[in-house]
Amino acid sequence: MRRTFRQLLVAGSSAVLLSGSVALPQLLDAPKAATPVDTLVQDLNTILSQPGVPEAHASVLVRGADGGVLYEKEASERLLPASNAKLFSSTAALEVLGADHRFPTSVLSTASVRGSVLRGDLYLRGQGDPTLLAKDYDDLAAKVAASGVKLVRGNLVADDTWYDAVRLGNSWGWDDEPYYYNMQISALTVSPNTDYDAGTVIVETRPGATVGAPAQLKVVPETSYVKLVNKATTKASGSTSMSVERQHGTNVIEVTGSIALGASVDQEWATVWEPTGYAADVFRRALTRHGVKVLGGTTYAATPAGAGELARHESMTVGELLVPFMKLSNNGHAEVLVKEMGRKVSGEGSWDAGLAAMTTALEGLGVNMGTIRIVDGSGLSRQDFLTPVQVTNLLRGAESQPWFDTWYASMPIACKNPRFEGGTLRSRMCNTEAAGNVHAKTGSLTRVTALGGYVTSKDGERLTFSIILNYFDASLPAKGIEDQIAIRLANFSRTAPPSVRVPALKRSTGPADVECSWVKAC
């Protein structure tokens, strides 16, 4: 007997219902046109399928303004975030300390003053300011002199007890210790420049008078706390190649390499061992310049209760500090903020206390701290683990906070000048829809890169995104992968086809394994 087409369908279907109705097979459904979201997913999958990416570990999450997921790839995987950890320390600091918080530094004494003589010790008390310049210590010294003091019969006592004495973070690399992005953390310190690279000195190198002559060296700011060992020479021509490295456990800085006749000054940064003594030396020199002589030596102790204040300096606000901190990815700023949070919440300026305060603040912003691990504020540690889910939870939780505009403005901005606007994204994504659009925090360690923040779509919708790549081969232009994704998001529209489907993959200029700011390349 010949069977009808309907009978054939019924016989071949495994979806006959008890009521007798039939669920038609998928082959009868009309093909659906790809939606803009479907196209976005296809394009991001294409980007993440390029050679070298599948062999690495890439986790990505993109969310719309309503919080809905537009794209997800292993977004709950815990990966090393590098400096993306600063998204967490910066928001927590705004929650705990407030944008108006300042760090005072003061000069005090319990001794009496007779005529122009202070008959006891002079205390220099630091409370964490990472922005103190040599000029600020000079201003403090000028105020002491203006008070009438010309002679101090006691010691200069440096007080860094506002924070604990632990100088380096959990599992920071020993081989990074001499370099300025791995500075020691003290409540009393000095910055040599207006990037506020606290706890470091700048070594300036100039050519000697003749070929073969030793190079000329100068330390900035002027201090005898460090000792330069000069092994650098002058050559006839060619590019400058200098190495400036502090020997472990000392303040002996060895300078090697060569600089050509007629070359401009070269600047290299080095960390200081025990920055408290560095600050005391800079201040003592300033006192001398202003006619104040300290007869005693330099010692270290807490300022006694009831000491009278002779001079005081107030730092910029935390809201203002966010600009050099976030734009240039300053590790020292992150860790000072962590310890300051601990000091404010529990009276203990330590990493443990600060991280506990951070945890409470971040949970209030919607972060599930049970699914991630944070052991420092900067992301230098390889014991930090974040997930794109929690990064975007933080980004979305921050949007409703009163300090959001300040925080959003502090993020690096793609292809934006000057450097205190573009920061670590200043040279990336130029001549694309992402330029001047993407506000995001970068992150870089060896075989680690991350980018997380905001991008505005072609419809004007602010998207949140997090990209974390780990364990990639050195040949992979990993930051170029991040840029491709961000550019594609900037071209996203819910109502119109994108003008760019898969952007061209470009290699970022500059080093791949560190933030460009760490080598002063951005």
Automatic annotation (TrEMBL):
Transmembrane segments: none annotated. SUPFAM superfamilies: beta-lactamase/transpeptidase-like. Its EC number is 3.4.16.4. It comes from the Bacteria. Keywords: Carboxypeptidase, Hydrolase, Protease, Signal. The keyword Plastid does not apply. One of its GO terms (molecular function) is serine-type D-Ala-D-Ala carboxypeptidase activity. Residues 1-25 form the signal peptide. Belongs to the peptidase S13 family. This is D-alanyl-D-alanine carboxypeptidase/D-alanyl-D-alanine-endopeptidase. It comes from Tenggerimyces flavus.
